[in-house]
């Protein structure tokens, strides 16, 4: 089924292939070295030819860019760094004209310290109505010099910052990203209006940043290490998302809400996917899974079971703008999974092995029931750039951990489009982060005419995805072989073992991650028709 056909289909979000655009690093249209909406508009044909259905844009709002745009100063406009509101409206219309839907990021947990509400709160002082929109509290100790509790920022250090009048404000991320207080009705009304603002401009949905973290336990209790209970997965979230779902459902064309939730239990995530709440949520258990047949099968089984219980489709994802690219993860000699606690930066990596496994993982992702995500550059086989100079790193994680955590810049290096030298067609000027010289062989231009390239594999896979196939039935082909069947007549096999394995009976090889002339080689996936 083509992207245009899926665009018109009912329940499009249940099987959508969604492409994530980190605008700053996608394509530069004005030559300042930073990606922008003009650059995206110039590359829409690439995305349409790739075969995805939907584009997801990371924040394009006005922002001081302390956290790459996730510190929003105005939720109803576009940062001049990226373009104008009129350009965003034109981009949405042009994407629709190519059969592509558009999902945009919304960041409801926090804003920038330059947001007008936070400036009002600082000026208004303790006890004011303006401060009730955030989590301002007096400190502990005789002079209030200690934070109100022991919560830690996810970017390192305390989650509290003191202001000159002595009060402290909460920020689960950078100190320049104050958390909203969702017990406040102004906050709830504001974001409902923001949803309508972008729906009115044609947005087909929202990806909700930190979707599990909006509501906090108002007692603000101390926590033990690793405990996020008071500020994650609070029961009051469901009321918020039921309200948002009513707004989405009031618009034509099936507008959708997608949650970003890093929860330890898939059944907890699935509770947000009931029919009157969110439509979909990222499957991070799948993303962090190491290269192991049994572990993948366990994650897939648990995912399908949890989603079936609430009638929601799963959404499979291998990489995004926050995690180490999976070509690098899968090429490690040791741990091939992912954890924010230790990114394993600097570990030995075999990129040939990582690429082989990434090709197989792509076919696995495309073969599973539900929707899927492609992070920009994934279709080119890009790896994590781990040798960025310290002085060029911009992720606040790097700064707040004093360099002990390399942060996320390595997966945000600008996309290579063409040519033999950096910036590889990214734009008329340079690129805000340096690209490896080796990427000359990984540009979209270099790969487009190569039938064996990663780009050609993604194009074929997205074209042939079994979106209309039935549920998954496991096949027993060996302990280290992941295999399943989906009617009518689709079979998937991935060989995790150290030696080739026989293929099951079949009439045709539809697609393979690497050449298959007899038995299935190790770290290779194949689609079969029976």
From TrEMBL:
Name the InterPro entries on file.
GH, GH13_cat_dom, O16G_dom_2
> Could you tell me the keywords of this UniProt record?
Hydrolase
> Which stretches are transmembrane?
none
Task: Tell me the GO molecular function terms.
Answer: hydrolase activity
- Establish whether keyword Lipid biosynthesis is in the entry: no
- Respond yes or no to whether keyword Hydrolase is given for this record: yes
Task: Pinpoint the Glycosyl hydrolase family 13 catalytic domain residues.
Answer: 20-408
| A Pfam family | Alpha-amylase
Q: Which domain of life is it from?
A: Bacteria
Name the protein family: Belongs to the glycosyl hydrolase 13 family.
Matching PANTHER family, A to Z? ALPHA-AMYLASE FAMILY MEMBER, NEUTRAL AND BASIC AMINO ACID TRANSPORT PROTEIN RBAT
What's the name of the protein?
Alpha-amylase family glycosyl hydrolase
- Protein species of origin: Amycolatopsis silviterrae
